[in-house]
Amino acid sequence: MQGLDTVSFNAAFAFAAGAAVLFLLCLPVKNRALMLAAEGFTLLYLIAMTVSLGVRTYISGHAPMANRYESLACFAWSLGFVYWYVRLRYAERRVGYFLMPLAVLVMYAASISPNEITPMYPALDTWMFETHVGSAFVGYGFFGASFAGAVLYLVDKGQAERTLEKLIVRTGYYGFALFTISMVIGGIWAYLAWGTYWLWKVKELWSFLIWIYYAGFLHALYVKKLRGRGVAWLSILGFAITMFTYLGVGILMKSTHQL
Amino acid sequence: MKALWDFLNSLKLTVYLILAITAVTMYGSFVLYLHPEVFGEMDSNLLFPWLATVGVKNLGYTWWLFPLIAMVVLLGFNTLVCTVSRLPLLVKKYNEPLLNLRDIEMGGGEGEEVALGDGGTATLTGYLEKNRYKVFRDGDNIFAEKNRWLPFMPHVVHAGIMIFMIAHLINGVFGYRNTGLYIFEGQTAKSPAGNYDIRLDKVKVDYREDGSLKDYGSLITAVKGGKEIKTGWVTANTPMFVEGGAVYQRQFGQEFAGIYLYVDMGQGGFRNYVLVPKGADYVEVPGTGYRLSIDRFLADFALDENGQPYSRGDEMVNPTVMVTFYEGARPMASGWVFLREPMRDTFRDSAVSIKFADLDMRAYSSFDVNRDPSALIALIASLIVMFVTVVTLYFRRERVWARLDEATGRAQVVCTDDEMYEGMVGCNFHPTTAENN
After folding, report:
1. Does A222 contact B39 at a Cβ distance shorter than 8 Å?
2. A8-22, B109-123, B138-152: least confidently modelled range
3. For residue A223, which residues of chain B lie inside 8 Å, CB to CB?
């Protein structure tokens, strides 16, 4: 059974790489067939990742969030999921230019991490942990889509500006809503596990930063001067903060929140 | 006063405050990470008492917390003023929806002219009502709105955030936090809250087949005035709520509490186990007038070149003790006895044999006892923020303005929604769809 997990992960890695290459080829060559092929790979990638994570969940009996490999794999899955959400909801394929190369990098990081299935520590073995982490990952994915929209807005100005603005804002809001779920459920869990919903730790501070930053981002939409390019730049900075919180704090700074 | 109100009512203030909070928190996170000697005990205390003591003494490291708190408080006032100043207008517009007709000047180029068809005005209003719009008419002007409650939602979120901040403040002043209450199984300790005792009835630890920890917990009883008031398991994510506070499982384990020696004084004499508690100067051998003392204890011994035991670690791997046997106050014999290697025993006496029988290991748990008087308020406030934020994703406030010209059977129609900001995105309604219906 665990073989299926590895095989589907490797297949997903290959599909992600194929999709990323095809998306990047679409940048200089506006070719509909290439774009469709890229999309096809993205769909196969999402299916294979879903199988891989599903198998791990079945074997371990808990959501695949117990170690760095699983954390990265979940984040990689969320990038594929968000791509398809944006594609179906906003008919916007171009976020793949950014989301799929990012998925490849995350998959690579996962592939060099130990991938054994590890049991969950008792305090983590709760639906609150799974909801806390799961909603944060999908939220990160939406922040990534907002970032992609922002980059497109800045470099591809003039083309469907309003659609891109809408994409930046809506995906930013989706990310914010999901991150709010993560913060609130995480707070409730922390209160039950550690007796306080807030800890003065690096990861907690950066998570607060993400939340309040995107709250500010949503308010910035109402400041005329910041509309358009301002909002795009804020989205880019927001995703930089998000990625530092997820990877920078986890890898560079020791934290009780390793991932 | 008006200048202050306008200052606090500014959306720019919100955005710039948040950017400033972001910058200060980033800086603070690095200081906090690099100086655990200052911030290490922060979570074991409430914020304000900690700031008043450790914080003030280490201003070089903690100064950023003061502007951070000030800015968060200012943001709270900013949020409050924003809601207080906007709410009356929203209520007015909700109660008098035709005020919305002034929002957009019809015929300003944004609208679309449509033919109303045979049904005339009823075609348009019928379509709107069928699609759950609330329709209002003022002469030739129609205003229709769907999900009219949505403009209130950001203010519900604001209220939730403000209530949460107040709850956090109440906890910072009236709560308490006590960490590291160690209790051995079967023993009772006074709760740091002071008004009841905690008895540790049982410690439970389960491991999986691979040796990893599966579950742990403590069965505890809260005792007040000699009466048991609550009993229950405290586990990883399940505290016990008692007397307005909560007891949390922190650590567990087994601690060395003493040693069992087997004392054999020959046929007809004393033959039994004697417990020597950790730290005891000596113990009586019951009913004999003899006594024992433990002169040295090594948790993990090795032998030096002279064959004498010395300590090579504190882990209870291979323990040995030096025992002295007394008749009254007079030492009779002395020597080493070994738990796992009794053949090395050097204690010799013709009247008595002493063997190191076992260790007395006692299970213990440590607990945190906290009280957060506003936890329920904070919970409700945060759930409101979460619920409203998520629900708002699924609804749109869609609005339609129409200016009718019954004589020509045509209407000028503008539609918009406030999905993110006004006018940015078109709503689902389209005049041609109305025509077709």
Report:
1. no
2. B109-123
3. 11-12, 15
pLDDT at B107 over 60: no
What pLDDT, on the 0 to 100 scale, is given for residue B100? 62
Residue type, B160: G
What does residue A29 show for φ and ψ, rounded to 5 degrees?
A: -110, 105
Q: What is the pLDDT of residue A213?
A: 93
Q: Please state the rounded mean pLDDT for residues B408-436.
A: 52
**If contacts are CB pairs under 8 Å, which of residues 34-93 in chain A contact chain B?**
none
- As for the ipTM of the complex, it is 0.89
Cβ–Cβ below 8 Å for A119 and B212:
yes
The per-residue pLDDT for range B250-307, each reduced to its tens digit, is 989 988 889 999 999 988 889 999 999 888 888 999 988 899 999 999 999 999 888 8
pLDDT of residue B431: 41
Spatial distance between the Cα atoms of A84 and B314, rounded to a whole number of angstroms: 58
B23 close to A (CB below 8 A): no
Beta bridge partners of B356: B261
Summarised one tens digit per residue, pLDDT across range A174-187 is 999 999 999 999 99
Q: What is the pLDDT of residues B24-48, one digit of tens each?
A: 999 999 999 999 999 988 888 888 8
Write down the pLDDT at residue B81: 93
Judging contacts by C-beta atoms under 8 Å, the chain A residues touching residue B248 are 193-195
Q: Do B382 and A177 touch (CB under 8 A)?
A: no
Rounded Cα distance between B267 and A35, Å, is 96
Return the pLDDT at B336.
95
Interface contact flag, B248 A193, Cβ < 8 Å: yes
Mean pLDDT, residues A114-129: 88
Nearest to B97 by CA among B149, B132, B154, B155: B149
Q: Answer yes or no: are the C-beta atoms of B375 and A191 closer than 8 Å.
A: yes
Question: Are A193 and B237 within 8 A, CB to CB?
Answer: yes
Taking CB atoms and an 8 Å limit, are A194 and B425 in contact across chains?
A: no
Cα–Cα dist A215/B18, whole Å: 8
Determine how β-strand B141-146 pairs with β-strand B134-138. antiparallel
Closest among A93, A187, A198 to A148, alpha carbons compared: A93
Element of type H or E holding A222: none
Whole-model pTM over 0.95? no
For an interface test with A, which of B27, B393, B420, B422 has the most A Cβ atoms less than 10 Å from its Cβ?
B420
Residues in chain B, overall count: 437
- Average pLDDT across chain B, whole number: 86
Q: Residue A119: which of B32, B43, B208 has the nearest Cβ?
A: B208
* Domain extent listing, chain B: 1-95, 97-147+396-437, 161-255+365-388, 256-357
Provide the token pair at A216: 């500010």
- pLDDT band, very low/low/confident/very high, at B59 (cuts 50, 70, 90): very high
Scanning B219-258 for CB atoms below 8 A from A yields: 235-239, 246, 248
The Cα of A162 is separated from the nearest Cα of chain B by a number of Å equal to 7
Q: Are B117 and B409 in contact (CB under 8 A)?
A: yes
* C-beta separation of B326 from B335 below 8 A: no
Question: Above 60 in pLDDT, residue B433?
Answer: no
CB atoms inside a 10 Å sphere around CB B422: 14
